[in-house]
Amino acid sequence: MGLECHIYMGAKDVKRQRPNVFNMELLGAHVHAVKKGNQGLKDAVDEALGAWSEQIDTTHYVLGSAVGPYPYPDLVRDLQSVIGKELKEQIKDYFGGLPDILVACIGGGSNAMGFFSAFLEDWGCALYGVEGGGRGTNLGEHATRMRAGKKMAIAHGFQSIFIQDDQGNLAKTHSISAGLDYVGIGPQIAYLESIGRLYCLSARDEEALHALQFFAKHEGIIAALESSHALAGVLELSKNFKNKKIIAHVSGRGDKDIFITAKHAHPQRWLEFLEHEALELRVKIKFLMLRGFE
């Protein structure tokens, strides 16, 4: 169609999501590493909105989560709703009815809203969202919007719950998962939680890593770090809900996270691999430079 695609990513996320960046560039996208602020998702959204506003006559803003100004949350939810609709149809024969619990990770809320939407009127099916609990409880150490005071704000074109400091400024966040490392939560998720339709949990970085390894070993599922938070939620819920039918949404593959997970699972072997690759690359570059001087 002759359209250019410009992707804005926080510089921190460009590093830790290098396989995704490689794939996007291979497909022809221009990936811009945003080096402002915390160099994360919030800062990438800031830059994307800024670029859009400067070129609004020739640019269309594409949002990948259920956040932002109307109608973006509705568009994303409805396009993702095929997940929940297909699940509801498929489980009729398998379960002979509805599941007891659905679990999804929650960053902005795109996969969760698509997963939950077909079940919103089925109050016998409990809905659980799992946020990024990060590495601690202090500001800047987590991304738990719904468990950090529930402070309302308006940012990025929508009103919802945002993590804020004492002065009302948007705070820094942290999650081992790039997709959950966002300062705000989708307005539809916030509403569902406010009326008691959705319960929010959190999983710390180490719990998500444990869930990733547990399900890889026992089920052959190598989930993305985002989805691993949902799986961590399943492990926690299963302690208190015996003999319940629980379904988790595995929204992504774990191969994109190899530069994060490998150094945790096998640090020494991963370091040796990187050193070997770096050495080979240096030798190749030196050889090419010598040939260039011939």
Automatic annotation (TrEMBL):
Q: Does the keyword Amino-acid biosynthesis apply?
A: yes
Q: Name one GO cellular component term.
A: cytoplasm
Q: Does the keyword Amino-acid biosynthesis apply?
A: yes
UniProt xrefs under SUPFAM superfamilies? Tryptophan synthase beta subunit-like PLP-dependent enzymes
Q: In which pathway does it act?
A: Amino-acid biosynthesis; L-tryptophan biosynthesis; L-tryptophan from chorismate: step 5/5
Where do transmembrane segments lie in this chain? none
Which InterPro entries is this protein grouped with? Trp_synth_beta/beta-like (IPR023026), TrpB-like_PALP (IPR001926), TrpB-like_PALP_sf (IPR036052)
Which enzyme type, at the first EC level? lyase
Q: Which GO terms describe its molecular function?
A: tryptophan synthase activity
Looking at the record, the residues that make up the Tryptophan synthase beta chain-like PALP domain are 1-252
Cofactor(s) demanded: pyridoxal 5'-phosphate
Q: Which UniProt keywords apply?
A: Amino-acid biosynthesis, Aromatic amino acid biosynthesis, Lyase, Pyridoxal phosphate, Tryptophan biosynthesis
- What is this enzyme's EC? 4.2.1.20
Q: Which reaction(s) are listed as its catalytic activity?
A: (1S,2R)-1-C-(indol-3-yl)glycerol 3-phosphate + L-serine = D-glyceraldehyde 3-phosphate + L-tryptophan + H2O
Report quaternary structure and partners: Tetramer of two alpha and two beta chains.
Can you tell me which family this protein belongs to? Belongs to the TrpB family.
**PANTHER family the UniProt entry points to:** TRYPTOPHAN SYNTHASE (PTHR48077:SF3), TRYPTOPHAN SYNTHASE-RELATED (PTHR48077)
Protein name, please?
tryptophan synthase
Organism of this sequence? Helicobacter bizzozeronii (strain CIII-1)
